[in-house]
Amino acid sequence: MKWWTDARFGMFIHWGIYAEAARGEWVKTTEEMSEEKYRKYFDIFNPDLYDPAEWAKAAKEAGMKYVIITSKHHDGFCLWDSEYTDYKVTNTPYGRDLLKSFVEAFRNEGIRVGFYYSGPDWHHPKYPVNHGSLIHPLRNREDVAVLNKERDLGQYMEYMQNQIKELLTGFGRIDLFWSDYGSDVTAGGNEDDLVKLIRGLRPGVIMNDRLFNPDLLSGWGWRWDYRSPEQTIPGQWIEMEGQRVPWEVCHTLNGSWGYRRNVGVTDRYGWKSSEQLITLLIEIVSKGGNLLLNVGPTARGKFDKNTMERLEAIGEWMEYHSRSIYGCTAAPEEFKAPENCLLTYNPELNRIYIHILKWPTRRFHLDKYFIGRVKHARFLHDASEIQFLDGQGHWDWVWTGDVENRSERTGIMNTLTMQLEIEKPDVEIPVIELFLE
Ligand code: GLC
Question: Residue with the nearest Cα to atom 10 of ligand 1?
């Protein structure tokens, strides 16, 4: 897990024929489309501008260290040339395997690769309608019982196992296996077979928790490797049975995983600003987690402008501040974050990073627990020293030089206090690096 917790930041990619509809990856089920109706997107899928090297470069420049792509989402469409189905990219007008070139391009940039795989499958003829917790496109058909006579979860499971084998053996070293709604399929109690299969094929693989029955999630460390909630910010480091566990939260840029042309602004949709996204990353690391940030490429194979702008802004910030992210975690509990700030901590360097979300007016006080603990303070972006007073002296006098104004009222400080410039440094979120004793 070491590489993964050090990495802290990955890219999620939701891509498939639903990008043609541009109404999100759930479009088949939200609009209750029949197989025939949804077939249209398959018949025209041809991402002529797809260049995975360009995607990999964008991820790398944003500071992302790993990538997870939807090899197969709920609609069942496969991005690779699977032996076990015709419902795959090689049978669309595009005609080529998308994952092969994808994996190669990301590896060339030194980015670790993982596959998302949906348990439920709205296309596979054996996957029962209205099985499990995920809503099915045919859910309101009158003949569901008749349809299900032909369907059989056991046979579907075989398909799933065969595909997982393909994914884990056909593309070189795969570092992560990211299951979604896997527990809908494994609810019968056959989790262990799947885990054995996955770990047997790729002993180093890291797995999220969604393959597992949510009621039986205990015992982390031998079945799942990390918890994977979505679109949220946990209040604190996620714990299980009183123990802090590894976690990752995935987020969209705009409320939708799959490409959506018309995002609009509702409580659910709307583009997060670059500042919000950088803050999100910092906050997640400050609570000991990873951020998996999603992009939904268009059906022509591009990241749209809104996406690129955000990735670039994150990259600009990361170029100067990634030291407060990589290899970092929550600060030891005695260090309280000053107001409007988030703390991260690098245990190997023994340094604390103060992320200043709202620029103060000159005086910047750190809690008394910092007194006597700080050897050196500087801005991270330019390594320039920040002078401070460490619980000593009368600050009015020391800093204004105004002897008249010196007053016993102020007393001895019980803080570690810095005087910052009036103007905020020219970076999105300034970071102070503290070298601890
Ligand atoms: C949900 C959705 C899905 C998305 C996933 C990402 O489970 O069903 O569309 O892929 O979350 O976390």
Answer: 257
